[in-house]
Design goal:
The protein has 2 domains: about 250 residues, Rossmann fold (3-Layer(aba) Sandwich); about 80 residues, 2-Layer Sandwich (TATA-Binding Protein), CATH 3.30.310. Helices cover about 30% and strands about 25% of the residues. Helix 3 packs across helix 10.
C-alpha cells in the first residue's frame, strides 16, 4: 500500500493508484541543475518518482539563490556542487526515493551511459550545445526527452518522442551562433518564467511516466509571462530530411564535432573553441556584458573580468577563460556570458 504522502495525487483520477505505482518505479535523468533543473527535481521528489539522476558541472553561487530553489546561503558559502546540494535538500523532502548526484560535464563521452537506464530525460541546461547532444543521444536510443528553456521573461518547451514527433533538430535545424542568444547572465531572468516552463515540462513528465500519452500537448509552446503572451505551435510529423532523426546522423556524439576545450599549460586558463564558430559582433557582446563586470574591448576581442575569472572572447567565438584549469568550469563560464 502506498503511504498517505501521495494520497491527493492518487485522488487525481488521471494518475490514480496505478499511476502512482508507475511513478515509484520510474527512472528520470535531469541534465543540468540550475533554475529549471531545481524545479524539475523538486517536483519529481514530491510526486514520488522512485529514482532521479541529477547531473551538473557547476557549483552554487549567491546569484543562483534568486531562482534556483533547492539551494541555500550555506550551499553558496561552501561553493557546494549543485548536484550534491540538490541531493541533500531532496533527501529532506522525500527520504523514500533515490537521488543520484553526479558532478560532471555532460558531453559526448558520457551522455549515452547517463540516459541508458532512464525512462525520461529532462532538459535543465542553459545552452544549445548540450541540448543538441541530448537530442542526438535520445534519438539514437529512442528515449523521450523534454526540451525547456527560460531567460528574461520568455520560455519555451517541447516534448520530443523520437520518430513519433519532430526532434529538436527538426524544429531548430541549426544551432544558434555563439553569442547570438541571450543568457540569464546577460539579460537576467525572473522566477515566474522558471515556474511556468517547469510546470509544463513536469506535467508532460507525469503524463509520460503514467502512460497518458494521448494528453501530451504536441506543440512547441512559447511563453512571455511579462507580456502575458502564450503561443502554441502545432507540431506535425518528423522531418524526413532532418539530419538527426531522418538521416540518423548523430554528429554531436562524435568527438570531432564537439566543443574543444584545451587547458593552457602553466597559465591557469582554458581555451574554448565551439564547433559553430560564426563571427561574433564584439560591440554587441560588449554592451551585453557591460553591467556584469569590468569590460574592455578592441577590434579583435572583448575581455570581461567577473569575480575570479577573466573571459576573453575573440571574433571567431573562440575564448580563453583565465582563473581555472578545469575545462568544465571554463565551459560553464563561457555558456553563462557568451551563450551557445
Amino acid at each position: 500500500m502506498i503511504n498517505e504522502r501521495y494520497s491527493r495525487q492518487i485522488l487525481f483520477s488521471e494518475i490514480g493508484q496505478t499511476g502512482q505505482e508507475n511513478l515509484l518505479n520510474s527512472r528520470v535523468l535531469i541534465v543540468g541543475c540550475g533554475a529549471l533543473g531545481c524545479a524539475h527535481a523538486e517536483t519529481l521528489a514530491r510526486a514520488g518518482v522512485g529514482f532521479t539522476r541529477i547531473v551538473d558541472r557547476d557549483f552554487v553561487e549567491f546569484t543562483n539563490l534568486q531562482r534556483q530553489t533547492l539551494f541555500s546561503e550555506a550551499d553558496a558559502e561552501s561553493r557546494l556542487p549543485k548536484a550534491i546540494a540538490a541531493k541533500n535538500r531532496l533527501a529532506q523532502i522525500n527520504s523514500e526515493i533515490e537521488i543520484e548526484a553526479i558532478v560532471a560535464d555532460v558531453n559526448y563521452s558520457n551522455i549515452e551511459s547517463l540516459i541508458k537506464d532512464c525512462d525520461l530525460i529532462l532538459d535543465g541546461t542553459d545552452n544549445f550545445q548540450t541540448r543538441y547532444l541530448i537530442n542526438d543521444a535520445c534519438v539514437k536510443h529512442n528515449k523521450i526527452w523534454i526540451y525547456g528553456a527560460a531567460v528574461s521573461a520568455y520560455g519555451a518547451t517541447m516534448t520530443i518522442r523520437p520518430f513519433e514527433s519532430p526532434c529538436l533538430r527538426c524544429i531548430f535545424e541549426e544551432m544558434p551562433g555563439a553569442g547570438s542568444a541571450p543568457t540569464c547572465d546577460t539579460v537576467g531572468v525572473i522566477q515566474p518564467i522558471i515556474n511556468s516552463v517547469s510546470a509544463i515540462q513536469m506535467t508532460e513528465a507525469l503524463k509520460i511516466l503514467t502512460g497518458n500519452f494521448a494528453n501530451l500537448h504536441g506543440t512547441l509552446m512559447q511563453i512571455d509571462v511579462w507580456r502575458n503572451d502564450w503561443r502554441k505551435i502545432k507540431l506535425g510529423a518528423p522531418n524526413a530530411d532532418c539530419a538527426t532523426c531522418g538521416k540518423r546522423n548523430y554528429e554531436f556524439l562524435e568527438v570531432e564535432n564537439t566543443e574543444f576545450s584545451a587547458v593552457l599549460c602553466g597559465r591557469n586558463a582554458v581555451q574554448i573553441s565551439p564547433p559553430n564558430r560564426a563571427q561574433i559582433d564584439l560591440a554587441t557582446l560588449a554592451v551585453k556584458l557591460q553591467n556584469l563586470g569590468n569590460v574592455k574591448q578592441n577590434e579583435y576581442l572583448v575581455r570581461l573580468i567577473v569575480g575570479e575569472y577573466e573571459l576573453t572572447v575573440f571574433r571567431d567565438a573562440r575564448a580563453i577563460v583565465r582563473g581555472t584549469d578545469d575545462a568544465a568550469i571554463a565551459r560553464s563560464v563561457y555558456a553563462k556570458y557568451v551563450g551557445v
